[in-house]
Structures are given as structure tokens and as C-alpha cells.
Amino acid sequence: MSGRHTTELVIFAVIFVIVSGMGFLAARWRRPDNMKSLDEWGLGGRSFGSWVTWFLVGGDLYTAYTFVAVPALVFGAGAAGFYAVPYTIVVYPLVFLVLIRLWSVSHVHGFVTPADFVRARFGSSTLALLVAITGIVATMPYIALQLVGIQATLEAMGVKGHWPIVIAFAILAAYTYQSGLRAPALIAFVKDALIYVVILVAIFYIPHKLGGWSHIFGSAHAKFEKTPAPTDGTFLNHNNQLNYAMLALGSALALFLYPHSVTGVLASKNRNVIKRNMAALPAYSFLLGLIALLGFMAISAGIKPVTGANGKPDGNTIVPLLFDHVFPSWFTGVAYAAIGIGALVPAAIMSIAAANLFTRNIYTEYIRKDASPAEEATVSKLASLVVKIGAVLAILLLDPQFSIDLQLIGGVVILQTLPSVALGLITRWFHRGGLIAGWVAGMAAGIWMLYRIPNPANGHKHFGGSAYALSDIGIDTKMTVYVGAIALAVNLVVAVVATIVLKAAKTADGVDVTRTSDYYADEGDPKVVRGTREVEEGLAT
């Protein structure tokens, strides 16, 4: 290891240790009288204000993988990689009204997960189980991908082997077990401050070092002019415009269906906190646009990705290598720490969200119906450990590309819960049987299309991305479409038709235990009692 890498590694390690210490101390932050409930351990007491929620939700949605993967996509495909910018802009107006309704009804009934809401709204434990399993399946590869971000920085520093990742996640597991959601909420302040500093420095310093923006865009244009791929380039073309728009809209619709996104929302103390955050979170989208430009900067700097263990170039290493190429060693260490910590915050929230789904919608529903709040908290803590161990094993035992492919599938999969969760917050028109039929049809259509997509870059014949070629169904064109949007359309059509048929046949539907006024309750409302399942049970009887 060179002296430069030693400096980077020392600074990375020092910041990592400081942040880990904050994770353990978080257990004393806003400490309640009793941490033995999911409301305290898994939702931070449902008491976070505007600032904490902004950092928590921002730290949750804009992950380390975003930090390395979006520029890597721009590096490899050009303008198509910028889809992440419009989707993180349009998502907030789309979910503004829906999320405050979710907050209200969840605080009235003590819901901890989206599946809790579905169970109460449609009176179907089967539908709730499908939503819970979908959330867990979609979240697991997302957690594993956070390790990809840490791994990319370690490789850039010349650190070989998996033991540093194992140690990092062991520490993460320990302070998440002890402090719950308070740990990532507190660490998110440091994470975001580091990322903002690094990106703002990068956006001014790197172009100056590389000869200006004209040279950067000129280098990118020259690179894509030489490639035979019909869908890359510094501008979109008629082959990828439709897929770009569908991917941006589909990703926007999916973002707040992920259970970890809902966890941050439910942890806020009132509806106004959510409204302020939906207005302020687009600031992260501005930052994301700047991060995406790092891909063009890497092309201009002549960065060559590190060859991975599979013998193929690892595009995720281009940002760490760019920083190593242009920054002084001490600031490169700070930038690497920003990426590393950027992995810990979302990984902690995701593991908590997945554990809460298991506890509330599988363990309590099917294994121990009379589990006490303290038992639920204990089970969720243990489940979060299992989730993290699974994520580490996925990185150690599988090709990292497999996790990336699974994450692409995750976006398609989680979209199939939109009719039950998002539309369910607006209307109770759907029949529970129709929603189950729609989920099955949408899932089958999505998986079938994903199976048909190859990835020429790594030689995989199946599950190679989420852009489905229309030529595969006999249409003479090079255009592609986003699988998630097509699968969701199938889901909705089947759900509507099945609902009409089931209602016409007068098939028994589930009982909705929520009331119209529940969706408008706010802090101070007598119905809003933090984390009391007794309220839900009282309404049900």
C-alpha cells in the first residue's frame, strides 16, 4: 500500500470510528423511559421534527450506492443515467398528499409497516403477507448494494479481501441493535454534511483541474461517438427516450413504496413535518444532478475501472478512482468516508424496516398473535441482525453483479404493491381478491420480462436490466420500455377487472377498520396515540 493510500485509509478509519461511536451514543439521544417497543426502537418514538426527518429521509433515499452507481451509469451510458434526477424531483409532488394520509392513519392505529395498513384497510392477512414479503424481498438486495459502495472505496485504497466489510457491518449491527432508528437519524447529520462538502468541492475543483466543462463534455461526446450501442450518448435519442421517461416515472412511483422510506415518514411527529420535508427534499435532487456529472468527469480524466474479482471492469469504482486521481490524499480520505458512512445510514434503516415487516406481519400474525410490545422489539432486533448477516453473505458468496441485478428486480417488484398501499390510501373501491389477483399477474408479467433481458456487458442471458426490448415481441424497433411500468399496468387492469367480477358475484370482502376521519388526524388529536395497538383493537371491535 502506497503512502498516499495509507493517509486516505487513516482518515477514513478515524471518521468511521467517530461515527460508529455516535451510533452507540444515539441510544441516549431523546432516550425514552422504555425502549422495549417497536415505536421506540423501530420508529424513534415517532417524535422526529423537520430537521431530523429531513436528514433521516434524505440519508435513507440517497445512499452510498447512489453516490457510486449513478455516476457509473452516466460513465457507461451517458444521458440515460440522468433519469435519477427527474424521478427524484417529480416524486415529492406525487406523494405529498398520500404520505400525510398514511401518517395520520398509522398514528391513529399504531401501524408500523405498510403491510399493517393493508391488513386493516382490506381486512386480508393474505394481502398483507404478500405486501410484507414483497417489501422484504425488494429491500434485501438494496442493503447488499450498500456494501458495494464501501467495497468500491476499499478497492480504490488498495485494501483487498472482505474482512473490512465484515467488521464494518458487525459494528453497524451492534449499534443498530442497541439504538434502533435513533442511530441512523443521528449519524445522518454527519453523513449529509460530508457528502455536501465533498460534492460542492468536486463540482468546482475537478473541472478546474480537467480544463473546464467544455473539455469534460467534449471528452464524453467523443467517447460515445465511438461506441456501437444505440442507446448511449450525451443526449437521449429516439431509441431510449420512452424507456427514460417510463423509468423515471416508475422509479418515482416506487420510491416511497419501499418499507424503509415509509419508516422515516412514520417516525415524524406530525403532518406538517412531512409537508415541509416534501417541499425541502428536492434539495437532494440538485445534489444528485451534481453527483451524476462525476461520470462525465471520470471520462474526461481518463479513469479506467478496477477489474473485479470476476475479471471484468467494475464501473462502481470510477468515482473513488476519480477522487484518488484529482484530490490531495487527505481530502480523498474524507470523500471516501462520506461514501462509507453514506452506506451505513440507509443500511441501518433498511434492516430495521425489513425486520419490522417480519415481526408485525409474519411473526405476530402467524406465529405469536399475543406477542407483547417488548417481545416484538426483541424479535425485530434479532431479525435486523439476520438481515444484515444475509446482506454480508450475499456480497461474500455471490457475484456483486448479481446483487445489482436483484436490485433492478426490486424496483419492479415493489411497484406491484402500489394498488394496495398507495391507491388504498385514497380509495377502498378495490376488492381484496382483485388486489391479490392483480399482484400475482403483475409480478408474473414483470418477472417474465426481466428473465428475457440479457446483459451483453457481463454476458448474463437473463435479468440483465429493466429495459425490455420491444423487438422481443416482434415489433421492428430498437426502442425499449421499463418493465416495472408494464407490469404495473397489467396489475392494475387485472385488479380492476377482478374487482368488478367479484363485486358482481357478491363475493365476501374484508372489513375496513379505518374511518375517513383517521386520514386527517394530526398531532394533538385525541385519536393520535403513539404506538398503542389497543386503539386499533378497539376500533376493530
Task: Note down, in words, how this protein is organized.
The chain has 541 residues and is an all-alpha fold. It has one domain (3-22, 46-404): Sodium/glucose cotransporter (Up-down Bundle). Helix content is 69%, strand content 2%. The chain is built from 22 helices and four strands. A two-stranded antiparallel ribbon has the order 1-2. Strands 3-4 form a two-stranded antiparallel sheet. Helix 4 (64-77) packs across helix 7 and helix 5 runs antiparallel to helix 14. The chain is globular, with a radius of gyration of 23 Å. Residues 530-541 have low confidence and may be disordered. It is a multi-pass membrane protein.
Helices and strands in order:
Elements: H1 3-25, H2 38-41, H3 50-61, H4 64-77, H5 84-109, H6 114-122, H7 125-156, H8 163-179, H9 182-210, H10 213-225, H11 241-255, H12 259-266, H13 271-280, H14 282-300, E1 306-307, E2 313-314, H15 318-326, H16 329-367, H17 373-397, H18 400-415, H19 418-421, H20 432-451, E3 467-469, E4 480-482, H21 483-504, H22 533-540
Antiparallel strand pairs: 1-2, 3-4
Helix pairs in contact: 1-8, 1-9, 1-16, 3-9, 3-12, 3-13, 3-16, 4-7, 4-14, 4-16, 5-11, 5-13, 5-14, 6-7, 7-16, 7-17, 7-18, 8-17, 9-14, 9-16, 10-14, 11-18, 12-16, 14-15, 16-17, 18-21, 20-21
Protein name: SSS family solute:Na+ symporter
Family: Belongs to the sodium:solute symporter (SSF) (TC 2.A.21) family.
Organism: Actinoallomurus bryophytorum
